[in-house]
Amino acid sequence: MATLTTRQHVAFKIEPQKANNPDGSPGGPATVEPGSVVVASSDETVITVTLDPANELAGDVMAVAAGGSAARFSVSADADMGAGVVTITGTSEDIDVTADPRDAATSFVITLGAPVDKP
Amino acid sequence: MKDPNMADDPNPELRAELEAALAVLEPQIRGLHDLANDRISNELLQFYNSSIAVHERRRDLILRELTKLDDALSGRVDLENDGYPSLPTVELPNSLFQELQEQVRDISAGAGVFELLELASQLKVTIGTPEDKS
């Protein structure tokens, strides 16, 4: 699980991969149809997700507010490099957003107003 | 005796059925014409002529089907005379055969440049190190 405070954001990368080899080892790198990558947050009150306009295989997760439960984001893309569409997906690890301690109160500032006569 | 080189009728059962129907129709048609040639009332003649038309139409349709069977048989004979079903191999002089072999090797070499593109089947997501918002 990843953790962000309410003052943080984090970059991520997406790696399209071929199917695992018969021995279970990861398949090699693969490509997806350019322009087909889509990301979506599971809870935009906790995190928002955007893709890098210059590189759709990278993006940024922005913490919004501390949520009761972790959020995550999903990614999808078209694996068919031709006219057809073969949609593949992936999901991030859970992301927990906590209140940033720098926003916690540490003291009080007391300000007195102008004196007035007693009634 | 049937010529062993002669093609078989493609549908002997249908031919026999049509010829049998024709054997019934033709005397009926002749008889109806004979009846129509006698001195009879116009009213009865109309019935005879109507029946002649029906029987002759049926006869013509049967003859048309028999003609199609004859055409199919003729086509079969032509095929067999052409050597059907086998096709002859073409023998090349040695120099041309060598040229063909070289061409086949070049085509195989050219095709060997390509391999099947394996599609991506999953997307792996990796999150980096958190940083303060700007």
Keywords:
heterodimer; A: 119 residues; mainly beta; three-stranded antiparallel sheet; 8 strands; elongated; B: 134 residues; 63% helix
Describe the structure.
By secondary structure, chain A is mainly β. In chain A, 0% of the residues lie in helices and 40% in strands. Chain A has no helices and eight strands. In chain A, the strands form three sheets. Chain A has a three-stranded antiparallel beta sheet with strand order 2-5-4, with no helix packed on it. Chain A has a three-stranded antiparallel beta sheet with strand order 3-6-7, with no helix packed on it. Chain A has a two-stranded parallel sheet with strand order 1-8. Chain B is mainly alpha-helical and 134 residues long. The chains are: A mainly beta (119), B mainly alpha (134). The interface between A and B is medium-sized, with 39 and 17 residues. β2 of chain A pairs antiparallel with β1 of chain B.
What's this, in brief?
The complex is a heterodimer of chains A (119) and B (134). With 119 residues, chain A is an all-beta fold.
Oligomer type: heterodimer
Uncertain stretches of 5 or more adjacent residues of chain A: none
What class would the helix/strand composition of chain B place it in?
Answer: mainly alpha
- Care to count the β-strands of chain A? 8
Largest sheet of chain A: 3 strands, antiparallel
Average predicted local confidence, pLDDT of chain A: 92
Strand content of chain B: 5-15%
The gross shape of chain A turns out to be elongated
**Total number of helices of chain A:** 0
**Could you say which structural class the secondary elements and strand pairing of chain A correspond to?**
mainly beta
Q: Categorize the overall geometry of chain B.
A: elongated
Separation of termini of chain B? Answer: 105 Å
Radius of gyration of chain B: 37 Å
Please describe the biggest sheet of chain B, giving its number of strands, its sense, and whether it closes into a barrel: none
Query: What is the average per-residue confidence, as pLDDT of chain B, rounded to a whole number?
Result: 92
Tell me roughly what share of residues is in helical segments of chain A. under 10%
